[in-house]
Amino acid sequence: MTASAPGQAAQSSPFAIFRNSNFSYLWSGQLISTIGDALTSLAAGIFVYQITGSVLSVGLMLMASAAPTLVFGLVAGVVVDRFDRKMIMIVTCLIRAVLIALIPIVVSTGDDLVWLYVLVLASASVQQFFDPANDSVLPEIASDEELSAANSLMAIAQFGSTAIGFALAGLITAQFSIEWAFWLDAATFVITAALIALVRVPKLVVEELSTIGEVIRNVGFGAGFIWRVPILRSMLLLRVPIMLIFGLQNVLLLPFAFDVLGAGEFEYGIQEGVTSVGFVIGSLLMARYADRLREGSWLVLSFLGMGLAGLAYALSSNIWIAIGLIGFSGILNAPSFVAGRLINQRNTPREVRGRVFSTSYVIRDVLYLAGMALAGLADFIDVRLLFAGSSVALVVASLVGAVMPGIGQPAAEWRRTMTLLRTAPKAALGAVRAPTPADVQALGRYIPALAGMPQRDQGALIAAGRVVEAEAGTAITRAGETGDNAYFVLSGRAVAGAISGAGEYRSLSAMTAGDVFGEIAALTGSPRTADVVAEEDTALLEVPADTLRRLMAIPEFSSLVLGKMQERLARSTSIADLPRFGGLDQAALREMRREAAGEAPAG
Length: 603
Description:
This protein is of the alpha+beta class. The protein folds into three domains: about 1-220, MFS general substrate transporter like domains (Growth Hormone, Chain: A, Up-down Bundle); about 220-410, MFS general substrate transporter like domains (Growth Hormone, Chain: A); about 415-595, Jelly Rolls. Helices cover about 65% and strands about 5% of the residues. It contains 24 helices and nine strands. The protein has helices spanning about 20-50, 55-65, 70-80, 85-105, 115-140, 145-160, 160-175, 180-195, 210-215, 220-230, 230-260, 265-290, 295-315, 320-345, 355-375, 385-400, 410-425, 435-445, 450, 455-465, 520-525, 545-550, 555-570, 585-595, and strands at about 430-435, 465-470, 475, 485-490, 495-500, 505-510, 515, 530-535, 540-545. A hairpin with a 5-residue loop joins strand 5 (about 495-500) and strand 6 (about 505-510). The longest helix is centred in the first third of the chain and has 32 residues, at about 20-50. The chain is globular and about 75 Å long. The two termini are about 25 Å apart.
């Protein structure tokens, strides 16, 4: 549960999210560890170059920090979905603290340089487990209304603070022994672990097997899930050219500044710093304005703006104008970063976020590295022409993204969705039929807990439920109604919204295949908390309340429903209409499962 006060007042400022103590601890820890990461990254490069005088050796060190993504990324996602995410973050921070502290101890001469590579490689490998756990936890400690501001401000902690680390590294290496940079970084990881220990995160209930065979089998689950969800698939396809271009242009910035614009080290350093400053400014703007547009619209506008800014940069001939354009591009980069995180978080079930997020990271990093390799084209093609051409390609890619499913949504379509929520008639649902094993199997593609249920338990679900059709434009539930069933989305698309005291909709979200809604009202007997309308023809597996309660005795099913309930409660407690759910904690939810199983009450 979040610590923020309910109601509209809590969101008068994007910085109101800091009233949520859980977010404050997580944000502070991320800020401190990012500064430490940047400090070590620069200090390690300086250290290697001082010893070897070889640019190749510096490159090998950078490769050692990037390679673990390809090796451990997918496995890390499976682990994050099977074990306590908070504990994963704490343990990885402490392990990295030890590894970084060992660097100045075991590395004293050039002969020991191999140990630097080993320790950097090990630290980067451990980080692969921290990142998906951290991103998976954020939607659980921030309500849906806070999530845009939370991601925007977290972007500053994750990337905008690198400039502080770089500056500290330069100061320490110039004024003190370089070993202090590593010891300071080790200390930041200890502090981060202590702050994360203070964060209250709902425990992840896992019923899936954690054997080595199951881990290997689930390595490809994230990619399959991304491909089955239209908006995630569209974002993946859009990012293929985008990340190639980003990798290419990131390498081209240096030769362009030196060879085309005649810049020196000082001007190039300012250009790099301005990029970080621009990203911070953009993130602050997104904290306030992110909810003004759909996430897909922000993606398109961000990439389009960066393409145009990049084209202007390629055509510039003055270094200071070019620096200004790069700073502006940094501002425009923030919306795509924040929107991409929101799309992942809002369209991925809690229990599979680790696998989906880690898969996204691996694909992103592979494409980025491939783009960096494309920079070799600059040996045969004029740098200005190559930069301009890639910027035009970025503009084209963004325009294509504007019409991709789930990404592009014209203002007229957005207004139609809002009108549907307000005016859709509450009519009897359409055709009704008995569920089939194929229906449960189809849901299992999105919900592993259902796929893992024994056949007899799947049979019980099939016997009790029914499949209903909701025509486009029909209200499935209305806020305030008494709920006596829950719904699993088999196909189609529905939208949900809760109305605020000011008469405007908030917490607008879309539900597609694999989503479940209505479970809170069905299990608690309380009124529905949101309007849900079929945006297109939608097939639903309807489960009556009494059947839902009986099925709670089945571990696989109860873990799924309890996870969905707790996530929804955690993401909606800032809505003024929901204070009555404040006392419904994990213990109370587990008690439902005990009662359904006929066990004596706990205690």
